[in-house]
Specification:
The structure holds 2 protein chains of 2 kinds.
Chain A: H1 2-9, E1 23-27, E2 41-46, E3 53-58, H2 62-68, E4 74-76, E5 86-90, E6 95-99, H3 108-119, E7 124-127, H4 130-133, E8 141-143, E9 152-154, H5 159-165, E10 168-173, H6 186-202, H7 204-213, H8 218-225, H9 241-244, H10 246-255, E11 259-262, E12 273-277, E13 283-286, H11 290-297, H12 305-318, H13 322-334, H14 343-355, H15 358-363, H16 367-374, E14 381-382, E15 385-386, H17 396-404, H18 419-422, H19 436-453, H20 459-465, H21 467-481, H22 487-507, H23 520-523, H24 537-541
Parallel strand pairs in A: 5-10
Antiparallel strand pairs in A: 1-2, 1-4, 2-3, 5-6, 7-8, 7-10, 8-9, 11-12, 12-13, 14-15
Chain B: E1 7-13, H1 15-21, H2 24-27, E2 29-35, H3 39-46, H4 51-56, E3 60-63, E4 66-67, E5 81-85, H5 90-96, E6 120-129, H6 131-144, E7 146-149, H7 150-158, H8 162-166, E8 168-173, E9 176-177, H9 180-185, E10 194-201, H10 204-214
Parallel strand pairs in B: 1-10, 5-6
Antiparallel strand pairs in B: 1-8, 2-6, 3-4, 3-5, 7-10, 8-9
Classes of the chains: A alpha+beta, B alpha+beta.
């Protein structure tokens, strides 16, 4: 939905922070219904970080609330004159836009507390922190969780800066008086949802690994593989991994009276999140996810969960992407602004961003800008966006996705491991190394398809192994809308989304030369396997040939 | 790696304490084993893990830091490191699975064929248990006993709070009862020693029943 509107209505050459850019906020197709896992919200615009198209999504309550209020999307256009800051209140009767300058430079937690006092605790909110107001390219948009805390973020690509450029601080959603959306065929819908939920619960990833340990269960595995980037992508094995792993995180959370298994929105059965309490047993933040633990932990040489949790809390409050900020602090450490492993220095660098000091303004604009400002060659970015927690030299297939994704370096662009069921892109021999471009393409198409439904991407694990679970997803859509979609239709949808996004980027000035990893990934051997990224440019250039 | 002399430390703990101890297995422990065999033989024959469990639960295996696809085409050597995990989320989690459809994504780091080796007794093999494997196999391995680097064990014990020690019903050092305060300080062992560490569960209900029967 968001990519469709952005690619049709936003001029590709417009300035991302200018009046001609649009910010599109859309709940999923099944949000606001009783379908499980349907609480993702998608946010799209031209990205100030990559200068290409951006689709960034988030969990939390707003998708459900917005859909129940009857909105397919909110589109913010233009740009107000002056320096006033606005809040938007949407309830069943009206949409109200008010000036509220008392919100200026407040953190997301304070903004939500203020809105709670004014509008009660039945609301959900979409807001930006100081980073968004300062139009930093790493700024995120925060969505509140079930406890009405701003812990869920559309993090990637600087969507928060676009919201800030339109001077919107917060959108308050109140669905009081509205009930769940009803399907065209309630019986069929109920039956499909039952099969879908059973499929998620019986699968070892969605039914066991994710609920028990959260996404941070990956730390030990990726570290063991030697593909866990540490100290700004210098090597792939971290001696402190077991101190920050999902297993240790869960043990610590449980000991402190937090929660190890918790959903980010109502209707989630996977429950991959949790509550992280501080040493005194008081709430600090949600359970830091794998990408955050890596970015603020291993990539900065930090092996302390409390420091990582504090940085996560600060990111949420200032409204920043944790991946981008972790990568940026690591670049700053390489530049000599701090030593790798210095916990206090990492916290202080992030404080600079929150305050908007000159140094903070540089850091808040991401890893690429910081590297430029300090003359650092090793900036782990593609199209201006920082790489996530997997080194593309050790895991080359993901390097293909980093290089070719329309979003910049993005692990979720090729996340939906459902291609063997979707049968997208024709037959691929997965055992051939040369097939990695084909595989990555198929993954990106499948991901675009699942993203289009607005379901949580984590459903893809159950869909991979269980065809009946995938069929149940299609049945849910068909029963709700009275459609007769097939798997082929879903695949076609994924392809059309990728094509639209690619066209937008091409019109914005991108060429195949932008589909490359930074030079040092081709020349600098990555320990412990001492490998480089060897996929040839000609192979990468075949990505969009379908 | 071969070290025949070691200190033994045995704990008898309440069940909730065992859950606190299990995470030590993710960093790695050692077993005295026969080497020169395949990973399959090591796990099934020597460690008596059922082949059904290996097939259904241990979806991800690393040998010396390399993801393994075929556990028969491997060779365990003195000092080998084996890491065992359940099915993992994410694309890269799926990529790392044994026999993954996406194995080509990590082709350059995949464990290929093992070297030719000969059978050797009394060698040390390193193991790491992650996630569900840690939870499901960990208690049995701790009961049988494992070798730990003394620094890993003392670091762990030093950081345990009071309620951890309150849940310890018996502490045996070299088979003799000792006060937990001695163990907590970590002064019972030299830095480079190996410790043979075992943990059994204190069966409170069983004890209570026995008490009841006596009365």
């Amino acid at each position: 939905m968001t990519s469709l509107i952005v690619s049709k209505e936003v001029p590709p050459l417009c300035h991302p922070l200018g009046a001609r850019n649009k910010l599109v906020i859309a709940p999923g197709l099944l949000s606001g219904t009783s379908a499980s896992m349907s609480g993702r919200i998608s946010i799209g615009c031209k990205s100030p970080l990559t200068s290409g198209i951006k689709e960034s999504n988030s969990g939390g309550q707003p998708a459900q609330t917005l859909a129940r209020l009857g909105y397919a999307a909110i589109i913010m256009e233009g740009k107000p004159e002056g320096n006033d800051l606005y809040k938007i209140i949407i309830n069943k009767d009206k949409v109200k836009i008010d000036i509220d300058n008392s919100l200026k430079m407040l953190g997301n937690y304070d903004v939500v507390d203020k809105m709670k006092k004014e509008y009660g605790d039945k609301i959900s909110t979409i807001s930006i922190g100081p980073a968004g107001e300062m139009k930093m390219s790493a700024a995120s948009i925060a969505c509140t969780d079930m406890e009405l805390r701003p812990t869920r973020h559309a993090g990637r690509g600087g969507t928060g800066a676009v919201m800030g450029s339109k001077r919107i601080k917060v959108i308050v959603l109140d669905d009081t008086g509205k009930s769940m959306r009803t399907p065209k065929d309630p019986e069929k819908f109920k039956k499909a949802n039952k099969i879908f939920v059973e499929g998620l619960k019986k699968h070892p990833v969605t039914g066991k690994a994710l609920p028990t340990y959260g996404t941070n269960v990956l730390t030990n595995i990726i570290n063991e593989s030697g593909g866990f980037p540490i100290n700004n992508f210098k090597s792939g094995k971290f001696s402190g991994a077991s101190k920050i792993s999902g297993e240790s995180e869960v043990e610590l959370q449980t000991k402190r009276g937090g929660l190890a298994t918790h959903g980010c929105h109502r209707g989630c059965v996977i429950q991959c999140s949790g509550i992280y309490n501080d040493k005194h047993g008081n709430y600090l933040t949600k359970q830091p996810e794998y990408e955050t633990v890596w970015a603020h932990g291993a990539n900065c040489g930090i092996d302390d969960l409390d420091t990582i949790a504090m940085l996560d809390r600060m990111d949420d409050d200032f409204g920043l992407d944790t991946i981008e900020m972790g990568a940026t602090i690591a670049v700053a450490m390489e530049a000599g602004l701090a030593k790798f492993g210095d916990r206090e220095a990492a916290i202080n660098l992030l404080k600079e961003v929150g305050k908007g000091t000159p140094l903070g303004r540089i850091l808040g604009n991401g890893a690429a800008i910081t590297a430029k400002a300090y003359g650092v060659e090793r900036a782990p970015v593609v199209k201006g966006q920082a790489m996530p927690a997997y080194d593309p030299r050790a895991i080359k297939g993901i390097g293909v996705t980093y290089a070719t994704s329309t979003m910049g370096a993005d692990h979720t662009a090729g996340y939906a491991i459902a291609t063997n069921i979707l049968k997208v892109g024709g037959d691929v021999d997965p055992l051939k190394t040369e097939g990695q471009v084909d595989l990555s393409r198929n993954l990106q198409i499948a991901t675009a398809a699942i993203d289009s439904t607005g379901m949580c991407l984590f459903i893809a694990f159950a869909v991979l192994d269980q065809p009946e679970t995938f069929q149940a997803l299609i049945d849910l859509l068909n029963a709700f809308y009275g459609l007769t979609l097939t798997a082929d239709d879903v695949t076609a949808l994924g392809k059309s989304v990728l094509k639209m996004e690619r066209k937008f980027n091409t019109d914005a000035g991108f060429t195949t030369k932008h589909d490359r990893l930074p030079e040092y990934f081709y020349t600098e051997a990555f320990p412990p396997h001492n490998v480089t990224f060897e996929i040839k440019d000609e192979e990468l250039d075949k990505f969009y040939n379908w | 790696m071969n070290n025949s002399k070691s200190i033994t430390l045995s704990l008898c703990v309440e069940e909730h304490v065992l859950a606190r101890i299990l995470p030590i297995l993710q960093k790695g422990f050692m077993l005295r084993s026969q080497v020169g065999c395949s990973l399959n033989e090591f796990l099934c024959v020597q460690q008596k893990i059922s082949s059904c469990y290996i097939t259904e639960r241990i979806s991800t295996i690393f040998l010396d830091g390399k993801p393994v696809d075929d556990i028969d085409m491997t060779a365990i050597q003195d000092g080998s490191t084996i890491a065992l995990s359940g099915a993992m989320p994410g694309l890269v989690g799926a990529v790392m699975r044994r026999g993954s459809f996406y194995a080509s994504f990590r082709d350059s780091i995949t464990y290929k064929k093992g070297p030719d080796t000969h059978t050797q007794e009394n060698c040390m093999v390193n193991l790491k248990f992650f996630n569900i494997v840690m939870k499901e196999l960990g208690p049995d391995f701790l009961k049988k006993g494992i070798f730990l680097k003394s620094s890993d064990l003392t670091d762990f014990l030093k950081n345990q709070p009071k309620d951890f020690w309150q849940g310890n019903k018996e502490v045996l050092l070299n088979k003799k009862p000792v006060e937990y305060s001695l163990i907590k300080k970590g002064e019972f062992v030299l830095q480079n020693d190996l410790v043979f560490f075992s943990v059994k569960i204190h069966r409170k209900i069983l004890q209570d029943n026995i008490q009841d029967n006596i009365q």
